[in-house]
Amino acid sequence: MTDEPRLRILSSRAAAPYLRAQLTRRGFLGVSVGAASAAALAACAPTGSSPELDGTVESALSIYTWADYEAPDVIQAFQDANGTTITLDSFNSNEEMIAKLAAAKGTAGYDIVVPTGPFIPGMVENGLLMKLDMDLIPNFANLDPQFASQVWDPDNEYSICKDWGTTGFVYDTTVITRDLATWDDFLDAAQNEASGKMSMLDDPAEITGPYFWSHGIDWNTTDEGELDAAENWAVEELAPHIAAFDSYPGGGGIPQSLYVLMQVWNGDARFGIMSSEEPDKWKWVLGSPATELWMDTYAIPTGAPHPNAAHAFINAVLDPDNSLLELDWNGYNTGVADIEQAAADEGLELLDMVFFTPEQVATMQTGVVTDAQQRIVDIYNKVKAAAGQ
After folding, report:
1. In terms of DSSP H, where are the helices of the chain?
2. Contact (Cβ atoms closer than 8 angstroms) between residue 202 and residue 31
3. Which of 113, 166, 295, 369 has its CA 20 to 30 A from that of 97?
4. What does the pLDDT look like over 164-198, one tens digit per residue?
């Protein structure tokens, strides 16, 4: 693995595919884009302090994460082993999480947060995260090297990989009988066989993504002409055919056959197909010729009241057995070394929707926060209005 190109994973992913609420995980281009601006962060630098790090696991641990994103078996095992009571609180977007930490100035009471890659530098710059004590996370050695040392945190001083994945689509082969293999195919079917019966992910970046990917344009473009073209296409050509904006069709759209064509994150697609009474009628397609690649991370906020427990929990999740439980719960690659073989040995299903070949990974593009962020949000809002939602 170490001879392969290191993954540069900058974007976020969807929450666990269980008990899905309509919560967008693509926060780096979320609707609340202004909630945690640099000015707001600078005005709210944390002032709290944390207890001494000595490895003594405290009796409480508070995790601020995405909805249904932590494997219950892992939570329970940690509580039983350490006598620690874990409290889970959820947020809808990175911006919401960051704004809450900034406003609290180190007194939010959270011990672990789960930001996505592009937000780490800004959070560090504004004092929202504490440095990790890697002596308390020896299981970091279990992480495959290609999932460490990402560009936003090259020395893993503040964050450690939790999950990573990608985006594609699922379609009902009993309705769409031709073979769909690319984003061009997806967009054509959306305007034909699936018109009025298709869904898009409820996230700004995902609305323009298929246009850019299918046209060979950098997903992170800031070119006004390219953005104008994407807006015209999305509002005029795509919006009239969209039945819903659904970030988690695996929870209902697929198993209940609510739509015949759905843009979807890989783990959620896997869960939906496994939950369907007719799994064979659904086909998952990795978006091509290009699509996205994202990573979520564990980090400890400044002022965490139970930092020893936080380090201990992160260390526990990096245990291979616990990592496999996380994968089974979420359907996403945790980045722990040899987890693909462990998942195969355990007999987990549809692993081709969890693990991807180097050739497939080479087609995935990472997302970054750019000067066009607000423009992408504006396009998203116009598309929803044009679709009557």
Report:
1. 38-43, 72-82, 94-104, 120-125, 183-190, 204-214, 224-232, 266-275, 307-317, 320-330, 339-346, 358-361, 373-386
2. no
3. 166
4. 999 999 999 999 999 999 999 999 999 999 999 99
pLDDT of residue 366: 80
The 3-state DSSP class for residue 3 equals coil
**Of 262, 45, 350, 293, residue with least CA distance to 166:** 293
Q: Which of 97, 113, 160, 104 is nearest to 132 (CA)?
A: 160
Query: How far, in Å, CA of 255 to CA of 238, rounded?
Result: 24
User: Which residues does residue 199 pair with via DSSP β-bridges, in sequence order?
Assistant: 244, 262
Band of pLDDT at residue 48, cut at 50, 70 and 90: low
Q: Roughly how many angstroms between the first and final C-alpha of the chain, as a whole number?
A: 45
Question: What was the pLDDT predicted at 30?
Answer: 35
Residues of the chain above pLDDT 70, percent: 87
The reported pTM is 0.82
For the segment 133-145, the average pLDDT, to the nearest whole number, is: 97
* Closest to 208 (Cα-Cα) out of 252, 167, 179, 174: 167
What's the pLDDT at 7? Answer: 36
Contact predicate 253/21, CB 8 Å: no
CATH hierarchy code of domain 165-292+363-386:
3.40.190.10
Whether the pLDDT of residue 329 is over 50: the answer is yes
**Residue 14 near residue 248 (C-beta atoms within 8 A):** yes
Sequence spans of domains, the chain: 27-163+295-354, 165-292+363-386
Is 165-292+363-386 in the same CATH topology as 27-163+295-354?
Answer: yes
Bridge partners (DSSP) of residue 198 are 242, 261
d(CA 49, CA 344): 44
From residue 259, give the alpha-carbon distance in Å to each of 14, 108, 241: 19, 40, 12
List strand residue ranges (DSSP E) for 218-360, in order.
Answer: 242-245, 261-265, 282-286, 291-298
Pick the CATH number of 27-163+295-354 from 3.40.50.2300, 3.40.50.720, 2.60.40.10, 3.40.190.10: 3.40.190.10
- The encoded tokens of residue 271 equal 């869960």
The three-class DSSP label of residue 163 is strand
Q: Are 162 and 114 in contact (CB under 8 A)?
A: yes
Residue 60, token pair as written in the block: 């409480």
Instruction: State the number of CA atoms in the 13 A half-sphere of 237 facing the CB.
Output: 15
